[in-house]
Write a structure and sequence with these properties.
Helix 16 packs parallel to helix 19. The N and C termini lie far apart (46 Å). The relative contact order is 0.14. The protein has 419 residues and is an all-alpha fold. It contains 24 helices and no strands.
Length: 419
């Protein structure tokens, strides 16, 4: 009955729309009291031990670096260069949006930061160029989700921490699915806007935009090259990204002053103040459940339900699609990754491939009501009606479902760089 009581308590708290910190804290307290020694002080002790990992430093470093670049001029310079490159193709401005989101995502690893930084530039530009409002909203919101799967990705870091999976391997595995989504979004943009009048390439603008954005374009090469060559760890690459962003914005471009830096740091600190207590509770609960061998028991139960990897993939993807509609990706990974990953391994799935599949699946949740984060951010940033944005992203949700099908059924797409 204690297990049933825990499940009912968590369900009741979720129905009452309680903060995830409250849900995880109550679940941890219930578990320690019912199955442990009854000492609630162990929640803090286990959570502190679990948080004592160098890789977790990469999260605040990446977030601060991304916010600095969004506040400064790096995003605008990247967009200018991508516009010079892709502008003359059919639907060139829409393709520019996708490429700019992909490139910016390869620096900051955050969907909401990408949406605010690139969307603030591209959404008005798309409207001014005559693109439909619905299409413009959809391409900006969908393009920003690339920040979740293209490395470095904060959700992939969380998955690696919660499941003890190599974060460097996860970053490598995100390249193939990320490029697939970029290609599908770009192809749709070209197909929908095939008849738009095309300007010719301007070699002078190509040269000038490259020169203007050179230092910005160098950053993804430094970060990703350092990680994939083994020269940087994930944490060291995050520190390098922060140092480089500060140097470029404050010394080279001089687009950020000390007042702006204090403002950005304060905003990032407030965000981390809501993230890390939740992460601590999730890790504390994970430590306790692992000690009690709960994941092994769940594996045994679910093995009776899913008699083959195919049935497991279908059931898991349907579950994750539903969860993505109701919960943000970070919360979903903190709760579900430690439970589902051992089951996936028992079904013969590679843990890195499963992490990518899970992330792509939950990425769709950024575009699905009622909890789609990109929908909420876009509503505030662009002052558009929520349901107007929901209708605008429908074609892109279908594209992402197609990409999910490919990612789930073709493991080599994720693993080819690891072999």
């Amino acid at each position: 009955m204690t297990g049933l009581g825990l499940a009912l308590m968590v369900l009741a708290l979720l129905v009452l729309r309680q903060n995830l910190m409250v849900v995880l804290g109550c679940a941890a307290a219930y578990a320690y009291y019912a199955w442990g020694d009854g000492s609630l002080a162990n929640i803090v002790l286990d959570g502190w031990d679990a948080l004592n990992k160098d890789v977790l430093l990469s999260i605040p470093l990446y977030l601060l670096a991304g916010n600095i670049m969004a506040e400064g001029a790096i995003a605008a310079r990247l967009v200018r260069f991508m516009r010079a490159v892709a502008g003359p193709v059919p639907g060139g401005l829409a393709v520019t949006t996708v490429l700019s989101c992909a490139l910016f995502a390869a620096i900051v690893g955050s969907s909401s930061v990408t949406l605010l930084a690139v969307g603030a530039i591209m959404y008005p530009a798309l409207l001014q160029a005559g693109y439909g409002r619905a299409f413009s909203l959809g391409i900006v919101c969908a393009g920003a989700t690339l920040g979740i799967i293209i490395p470095p990705s904060i959700p992939l870091i969380l998955y690696g921490v919660m499941t003890n999976t190599s974060i460097a391997d996860l970053f490598l595995a995100g390249v193939g699915p990320g490029l697939l989504l970029v290609g599908l979004f770009g192809a749709y943009a070209i197909a929908v806007n095939w008849r738009r009048r095309l300007p010719s390439w301007n070699l002078r603008e190509l040269r000038d935009s490259f020169a203007s954005g050179f230092w910005s374009l160098l950053l993804p090469a430094i970060i990703l090259g350092g990680i994939y060559s083994g020269y940087f760890t994930a944490t060291e690459s995050a520190a390098m990204a922060l140092f480089y962003a500060l140097f470029v914005e404050m010394v080279i471009h001089r687009e950020l002053d000390l007042y702006g830096l204090v403002k950005v740091t304060g905003n990032t600190t407030r965000l981390l103040g809501s993230l890390f207590p939740v992460l601590m509770m999730a890790l504390s609960l994970n430590v306790f459940l692992s000690y009690q061998q709960v994941p092994e028991q769940i594996v045994g139960i679910l093995a009776e339900w899913f008699t083959s990897p195919v049935s497991f993939l279908i059931g898991t993807n349907l579950l994750l699609l539903a969860v993505g509609m109701l919960m943000d990706i970070g919360s979903a990974i903190l709760i579900l990754a430690p439970i589902l990953q051992p089951v996936a391994q028992a079904q013969g799935l590679d843990p890195v491939h499963f992490g990518i599949m899970m992330t792509v699946n939950l990425e769709i949740g950024y575009l699905t009501p009622p909890m789609g984060l990109n929908l909420i951010v876009a509503m505030s940033a662009f002052r558009e009606d929520f349901w107007t944005i929901c209708r605008a992203v429908v074609p892109f949700i279908l594209i992402m479902l197609l990409a999910l099908l490919v990612v789930a059924t073709v493991p080599k797409l994720s693993l080819f760089l690891l072999r």
